[in-house]
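From the methods appendix. Each design record in this collection lists the tokenized structure first, followed by the designed amino acid sequence. Records were kept in a plain field format so they could be parsed without special tools. The example shown here is representative of the layout used throughout.

RECORD:
FOLD TOKENS (198 positions):
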């Protein structure tokens, strides 16, 4: 039986409006609500498992970071993916044109008479004296193929590094870190990083 969209939306709104479970348990059992120490995250488990975060970013760079609330890094990986795909398309088009016009040539000089008028052949077209060779040589085609393969490698690398970053971020989800700027004993400014292991 299919439920109307309004009914599903109402259920979703009700689910979002329900308070957390701990205050409800405290109200029903009379026990005090759980008090967490300062600096301890309410949820020690990441929103997604490390394996799932890796697979998300492996297929769509930035998706695993977005699931872990790391939107800046997710946007960076997604932007790198878009730019790399655009350059893959551009280099593939350049390679296609080089292969298409590899055997192409153009007339460089026509035969003319004493008056400077072109001499026509039996087919009614000007007679060609010399042809210019196509600028798309074998070396240029190899160079454009290399550009295309390089940008493909960048796309693959972006997928792998985004997946690895999402995997590590999910593994270190319960490892809080603080970075602060403090004065060193000699009076100069120093950057201090504090890690709390649970």
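DESIGN:
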């Amino acid at each position: 039986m299919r439920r109307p969209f309004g009914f599903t939306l109402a259920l979703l709104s009700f689910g979002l409006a329900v308070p957390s479970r701990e205050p409800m348990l405290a109200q029903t059992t009379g026990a005090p609500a759980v008090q967490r120490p300062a600096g301890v995250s309410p949820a020690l488990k990441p929103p997604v498992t490390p394996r799932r975060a890796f697979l998300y970013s492996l297929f769509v760079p930035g998706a695993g970071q977005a699931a872990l609330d790391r939107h800046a890094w997710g946007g960076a990986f997604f932007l790198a993916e878009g730019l790399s795909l655009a350059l893959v398309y551009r280099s593939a088009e350049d390679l296609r044109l080089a292969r298409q016009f590899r055997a192409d040539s153009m007339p460089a000089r026509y035969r003319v008479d004493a008056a400077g008028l072109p001499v026509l052949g039996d087919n009614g077209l000007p007679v060609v004296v010399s042809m210019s060779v196509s600028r798309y040589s074998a070396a240029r085609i190899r160079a454009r193929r290399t550009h295309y393969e390089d940008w493909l490698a960048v796309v693959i690398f972006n997928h792998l590094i985004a997946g690895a970053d999402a995997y590590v971020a999910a593994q270190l989800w319960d490892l809080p870190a603080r970075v602060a700027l403090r004065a060193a004993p000699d009076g100069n400014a120093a950057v201090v990083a504090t890690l709390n292991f649970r």
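APPENDIX NOTE: The beta strands are 105-110, 128-133, 177-183, 189-195.
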